[in-house]
Design a protein that fits this description.
Layout: H1 5-13, H2 17-23, E1 25-29, H3 31-38, E2 44-50, E3 64-67, H4 69-75, E4 84-89, E5 102-107, H5 112-124, E6 129-133, H6 142-148, E7 156-160, H7 162-168, E8 173-183, E9 193-198, H8 206-209, E10 214-217, H9 229-242
Parallel strand pairs: 2-3, 5-6, 5-9, 6-7, 8-9, 8-10
Antiparallel strand pairs: 1-4, 2-4
Helix pairs in contact: 5-6, 5-9
Length: 243
């Protein structure tokens, strides 16, 4: 089968947030991501695969279009992608119900690479739910999906007004990463906890900060001014699991 101009136009439209929203579709690119989404409960529209890998898909029932690696490069959002891409249906927004005891909360994290890495880190440490402020970067952004390395299928994300979300779930203690907080190495996390991480450039906004009940910081032994939010999240989740 050959790709039609209509399908090419659809793929190109999914490079933008508007296109993803209007079509309720998104792109998964590269070998790892495609293998993960094939082994998930996401509904796929079709695959576009490098013809060199045609022998790997002989028994697949999905519509598959085999094209040259040059065509893959033209269609992909990635700088390097010689394997292929999948056009996938977006899922309905998660309600995070039931709510887990340990939930990560992100306030104003706008860098897609950071969000994708955070989702991957959460998957590593068994954190299955993330709540994001409405101004965080979009979950289905191709850079987010790529950076998760397939972990997007195992972590549920909810976009919400954080202050309203906290008020609706008073049983969880709100713990935030803050340079003026208590030493993480000496901190014991409560059984039910929201771990709040802010953006590197702006930190946690004032209305969210006013609701924080406990603050923690990663002790510094060198001279660096700050840590990347994804790295900080990994360190904090590691300590959480050590508890």
């Amino acid at each position: 089968m050959m790709l039609t101009n209509k399908q090419i136009k659809l793929i190109n439209s999914l490079h933008s947030k508007k296109g993803r929203s209007e079509n309720e579709l998104f792109l998964v690119e590269g070998e790892k991501g495609i293998q993960e989404v094939l082994d998930s409960n996401y509904e796929l529209e079709f695959l576009v695969i490098n013809a060199d890998f045609q022998h790997l898909f002989s028994s697949n029932s999905l519509p598959i279009y085999f094209v040259s690696k040059e065509e893959i490069t033209k269609l992909s959002t990635l700088t390097i992608n010689q394997y292929g891409l999948a056009v996938v249906h977006c899922k309905a927004s998660s309600s995070l119900s039931p709510l887990d005891d340990k939930v990560l909360v992100l306030d104003g994290v706008r860098d897609p690479g950071n969000l994708g890495t955070i989702i991957r880190v959460c998957d590593w440490y068994g954190i299955k739910q993330i709540v994001l402020s409405n101004d965080c970067t979009e979950f289905y952004n191709p850079k987010v999906i790529s950076a998760t390395m397939g972990s997007f299928k195992r972590v549920d994300c909810l976009y919400a007004d954080l202050t309203a979300f906290f008020r609706t779930n008073p049983d969880h203690v709100i713990v935030a990463a803050d340079l003026s907080g208590d030493n993480l190495h000496e901190f014991t996390f409560p059984p039910k906890v929201f771990i709040v991480m802010g953006s590197e450039s702006h930190g946690i906004r004032d209305d969210v900060s006013a609701m924080i009940q406990q603050r923690i910081t990663i002790p510094r032994f060198g001279e660096a001014e700050s840590l990347n939010v994804a790295i900080s999240t990994g360190i904090i989740l590691d300590h959480l699991r050590r508890n």
